[in-house]
Amino acid sequence: MSAVLPLPSPPRDPSDGAEAGQLVRFPAGLLGFPDTQTYRLEAADVPGFYWLKSEEHAPLAFVLVDPFQVIEGYSVDVPAQEAEILRVTQPNQVAVLAIATVPRKAGEMWTANLQGPVALNLEAGLGVQFVRSDAPGVRTPFRPAVAGA
Asked: When comparing pLDDT for 104 and 86, which is higher?
């Protein structure tokens, strides 16, 4: 299933008094974190960036980036097995993000893990991380359009 759509905004507005973001359950966890399955997805202050914060282990959080906004020509096919886990029947039900690594020093490049993208079905509150053998790699450099990045 081809997924080339940008991530929709999380359905709840943080200013409405409800807890910010949306809960997303990863039945198999994330790669390297199989026992941590419940996260909260929150939009960051910078468009195209998100926080994925563990609900089970408070210090654990990931910066996610919309790879379609920062990697020219990026495309991805969500494998049928993962689409089934996500309960996806239409391409517009899935959003794909990449885990980003924030540079340690100003001026250094950010990187995105395009080999292990995160696919989300926000309607169902489900997520899965899968491995792509055809991806550029786990440290694909990019420079976001952010002051000081």
From this structure: 86
Rounded Cα gap, residues 61 and 38, in angstroms = 11
Query: Distances in Å between the alpha carbon of 9 and those of 12, 20, 48, 55, 137?
Result: 8, 12, 10, 20, 27
Work out the average pLDDT over 64-69: 93
What pTM was estimated for this model as a whole? 0.82
Domain boundaries, the chain: 21-142
Q: What is the pLDDT of residues 25-39, one digit of tens each?
A: 999 999 999 999 999
Q: Is residue 8 pLDDT above 80, yes or no?
A: no
User: Which positions ≥6 away from 63 have C-beta within 8 Å?
Assistant: 44, 49, 50, 51, 52, 99, 100, 101, 102
CB-CB contact of 112 with 70 (8 Å): yes
Which overall architecture, per CATH, does domain 21-142 show?
A: Roll (2.30)
Please, which residues bridge with residue 24 across strands? 39
pLDDT band for position 18 (50/70/90)? very low
Give a three-class secondary structure readout of 16-70: HCCCCCEEEECCCCECCECCCCEEEEEECCCCCEEEEEECCCCCCEEEEECHHHH
Tokens of 28: 């198999």
